[in-house]
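[step 3/7] fold_predict: job queued, chain A
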Amino acid sequence: MKKPLVLIAVVLLCAACAPAPNTTPAPAETTATPLAPVSLSVDSGPQAPGGTVPPTIGISWDQTSKDQAVDVAQKTMTDFARPRVEEKQWANDLARWLTPQATAGYSAVDPANIPASRVTGPATLSVDEANGYGVMAAVPTDAGTYRLQLLRTGKDAPWKVNRLTPPTP
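[step 4/7] structure written:
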């Protein structure tokens, strides 16, 4: 007789914890109408108010910015291409060069799985003169050329690596 009472108590407890069903009717579908004509990209006309885009997006490039980006890319790959370093030490050394998002992502990497063990040449940049907030760098290693995305939040902010892309086979 005890088992049926326990089962009933469990069923009642589960029913009490279950969320109530949503009885609110779904809103009727509406069609949005644009308030202004939509400008498509590239050759269909300007998207910026007044029809012009600033020559740079907030930060202009100078040689110091380029040198700093090259330096960070080179140092990042030097710390990255160390497959024989203990995991915690590797992640801590690499984190100083990374954005917070990249730090979180690369903290789970086992350095033993990295095919590169040394940098074999200088980093080179692919600069978009209209964007002073980001740049791509290519860094040659003994496993091929890695591509690094570097970002900064302002002209005087340090460059941080957001992504390391391994060489394509």
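[step 5/7] annotate
The CA atoms of residues 91 and 107 lie 6 Å apart.
The longest helix spans residues 63-80.
exit 0
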